Amino acid sequence: MPMRLFRLPIRRALLALALLTAGASVARAQVGHPPGDSPYQDLIQRQSFTPIFGSFGGNGGKLGIGPHRGTTYGLRYDIRVSNPVQFGFGLSTGNFDRLIVDADDSVATRVKGPVTQSVTLIGLTLQWNLTGAKTWHNLAPYWSGGLGIAIAGKTAADTSGYSFGKKFYLTPAIGVRYFPTRRLHLRLEAGQVFWKLKYPTAYLDQPADQPGTTTSNAVITDGKIDQWTGGRWLVAGLGYSF
Question: In which band, very low, low, confident or very high, does the pLDDT at 11 lie, cut at 50, 70 and 90?
């Protein structure tokens, strides 16, 4: 009798193990894929170079004197340091539109332009790959955050005293890479650039030849001489991985 009582739990345990194994096999058959048919493919290479082309938007701030509405072109280098994490370094340059506002001119004529201003953007990016070191149906979506410096060229026509100069900027972005082959990929990215403009204190003063009587004719009437602004930045590129 004791041996029978001992064998009964063993038989039940073996039966339960067999049922669990069978259930797991069925589950794998339902959700799994043969290796050749899997939607996931490994990304073996960890580095890439990507020539990039961009379209920059925005309105240049409340006065329109910040650089905006332009095209950019440049080069980006990326290195993946773990399955989901990679770092990027980018260098882009382009010509942007901007307005000129001269506080000493009359209200009717003090806004001029748009004129063209060159801007170079140098940035570092931290990118989080949502599918890790794999593609899904040849796609690798991601989100990223960037920090950089924008350096503007001089505008000879601007005698207002305003200068964009050098500005630190932040760039959150989302994007996707499409891999038609293991080494080539198409990158599409949509980001938003944030930088802080600082206006001349002369914009707080009324024009000497046309002061306001009931309301101020100063360029800035609310006393705020700085503003966070920027523009959306759409980027496309063809990259090579190695």
Answer: low
> Which pLDDT score is estimated for 213?
81
Q: How many CA atoms lie within 13 A of 130 on its CB side?
A: 11
Whether the Cβ atoms of residue 235 and residue 57 lie closer than 8 Å to each other: no
First to last CA, the chain: 70
Contact 112, 86 (CB under 8 A): no
User: What pLDDT, on a 0 to 100 scale, did the predictor assign at position 101?
Assistant: 96
Half-sphere exposure at residue 131, Cβ-oriented, CA atoms within 13 angstroms: 17
List, for residues 217-233, the tens digit of each pLDDT value: 999 999 999 999 999 99
Q: Cα–Cα distance between 55 and 58 in angstroms, integer?
A: 10
Token pair 């064998």 is found at 7
CA distance 55 to 73: 9
The model's pTM: 0.82
pLDDT tens column, 62-90: 999 999 999 999 999 999 999 999 999 99
Q: Write out 79-125 in H/E/C secondary structure.
A: EECCCCEEEEEEEEEEEEEEEEECCCCCCCCCEEEEEEEEEEEEEEE
The count of C-alpha atoms lying within 13 angstroms of the C-alpha of 236, restricted to the half-sphere facing its C-beta, is 3
